Every structure is written in structure tokens, then in C-alpha cells.
Amino acid sequence: MGGLGKFTELRQRLIFVVLALVVYRIGSFIPVPGIDPAAMLRLMEQQEGTIVDMFNMFSGGALNRFSLFALNVIPYISSSIIVQLMGQIYEPWKAMKKEGESGRRKLTQYSRIGAVLLAVVQAGSIAAALQGQSAGAGIPVVYAPGPGFILTAIVALTAGTIFLMWLGEQITERGIGNGISLIIFAGIVASLPSAVIGTLQQVANDEISPFAILVIIALVLGVTYFVVFMERGQRRITVNYARRQGGRQAYMNQSSHLPLKLNMAGVIPAIFASSLIMFPATMAQWFGQAATPTGEGWRGQMGYYLQNLSQALAPSQPLHMLLYGGLIMGFAFFYTALVFNSQETADNLKKSGALVPGIRPGKATGDYIDGVLTRLTLIGSLYLVLVCLLPEFIRVFWSVPFYFGGTSLLIVVVVVMDFTAQIQAHLMSHQYESLMKKSNLKGGGRGLSRS
User: Dihedral of CA 63/134/193/229: which sign?
Assistant: First the structure.
């Protein structure tokens, strides 16, 4: 019965994840009041291959429809970045991090508050930018521009972001995997059918050669294998435990390993870097398009500069690649430092009587581990940059749809690996509990037979 209960719990968690993601997809089809859906769709079709297209991909197509979930969890991700950075430099928050679980809850609450404030700003910016947009032939995207529409959009989009924050936390707590990552994953996967259809249409129109399609398939398979290989890669530092005396028994020296992952930050650097680039570039493009038609005065100049900025930050452009790659590397080091403390690990090894051969316990061990971790993080960050930017270079030579970006492929593969690993952990936990119960029953049976 215990084993059945464990499987029932796993099944319930899986069902909860599926239902939560279904709710997310339904919400992505509910439009914000005041938008002409057909005009909005035509406007987004004009943005294909731009940074706006990347924003739309992360939202699972919600931006196409300007739905309640158009902002997705991007405000929450941006707020988390700010809070974590402040936790490194702002003394009261640094002290709060040392308070353990209570401090973590306070910082999480600050991230939520910051996400709401950012959602208000981003929603207002998008609404204001859309008021000046048309879908060709003078058809406005917004039915009735004005303060009423902006206020409606702010309330609707902010409420959507708050709901997704809550939904992500519920998935993490009551489901399997990281809720925020699964929401982004679901959005990307939902965009794949349209990406495949768009690619096939390009083949039918002779815009892409069959050879290019083979290159795309080979690239996707090769990058997937490479990501799995690198995510499983680790450096094992040998650790020796000194001889111990326990009662009448003497325990000989034992050797173990301290495993350090090649990429401890996972997919977080790519998500952080994308969120920091996408929104400012999207706003530059839309505000630039809205200001350019006048062509005169400061509005014309502002439109000209904003359009140039958005074009420079467009996918496959040198500035975009340079900025994106730099942010990925920076966040890889930053996030690794957050999740792994070398000196704390060295202190724990010293307390348990363990030492690294040839290295003095304490600070020297911490410095050694930190040096190894720095080299691993450098390799891991370069791997992330390569995976995220390799398709960008391929796109320069072939007109490949933007959906087949390295970032989206990286997120999908890593989230699937993490999700699968957590399911396996639940199954192993069930097997271990079953073995322990069988062992206890056998021991109890022998005791009864002796009596």
C-alpha cells in the first residue's frame, strides 16, 4: 500500500503539472480588451525575424494575440535578477541571506513586489507603443487609443503576470520541476508547430533548399546531443576521510569525490540575458515605428534613433551577438557564485574530517575549489554562448525561421533533462522505501519465530 501511495503521489504531481500548463495555454488566448486581434496578428507578422519575434516566442505566442499572458514571467525574471544583484552588494539584504529560510522568503517577497512594479511599467510601455501602431492600410491596432486603454492594459497584463508567478510557484511546490522554467518551456514548445509549418512553406516556395533543411535537422540533433553531454559533465575532486576510531572498531581511510558540474548555472544565464535584451529592444522598435511617420522635429529624430537601436539589437546582428554572449557569460559566473560557496564547502569538509590530497584544510581548500570552479564555469559559459549563438551564425547564411534559435533549444533540452531527473528521483525514493519496509518486515518475522 505504501508503494501504491508513492506512485499515486507521483501521478498526482504529473497531473497537476499538465493541468497547470493547460490553464496557462488557455490564458494565452484571452486578449486584452480594446485590441483588434486581426490587426495585431498582421502587425506581428511584420515583425518576423526581429527581437519582437523572440519576445513572442518566449510568451508562447501570447504577444501575437496581446493576451493576458503577453508579458509572461519576464517581469518576475527581471525582478529576480535585480534582487539577487542587490543581495550581493546591499548590506541589509546580504545579512538577510544569512538568516536561512526566513531570509530567503523575505527576498522572494521582494522579487514578487518588484515583478508587479516592472509589470506595470512594461504593460504601460507596450500599451502606449501599440497606440501608435497600424497594420497597414491605416488600420489601427487599438480600437480606442487613450488613457482608458492604457489603464485597462496595465491592469490586465499585470494581473496575468501575477497569476503566472503564483502558478509557477504552485507547480514547483505541488508538481515536479521548476514552475517558472516549465512555463517558459511550454511557451516555446507551443510555438514549434508554427515554426515547422513556416519552414515547410519556405521549402514549398523555394526560399529554403532541401539541403538547408537537412542542415537544420542535423544542427538540432547535434546541438541536443552536445547539450546533454555538457550538462552531464562534471569534475570530481578526490576527497580523503581521515582514519576514525568508533568504539572498538577502527575505520580505515576512505576516499570519496566532490562532484562539480561543468555548468552549475543551468539554463538560467540564457533566460536572464534574453529577458534583459528583449523588452528594451522591443520597446525601441515599437516606439520607433510609432514616432517615425511624422518625420519631423524631435519625434522624427527619436523614431530614427530608436529604429536604429532596435535594428542593431535584432537577432543575428553583431551588437546583439556581442551583448547576448557577454550577458550569458556574466550571469553564468554570477549565478554559480550564488548557488555554490567554495569556502563554505571547504569548511564543511574540514568539520567532517575530510581533506583534498596535497591541499591544507580550510581556506587553502576553499581557494583550490574556487579555482577549479572558475575554470569549469568559464568552459560552461563558453558552451552556453556557443549553443545560443551557433544558430545565429547559421541564420546569416540560410533564411531559417527564428524559432529554431539556440536559446529555445537549450531551454527545452535542459528543462526536459531536469524534469526527467526529478521523476527518476521520485521513483528511486519509492524503491528505497519499499526495500526498507521489506527489510523491516523480514527482521520482524525472524524476531517472532525466535520467540
Answer: negative
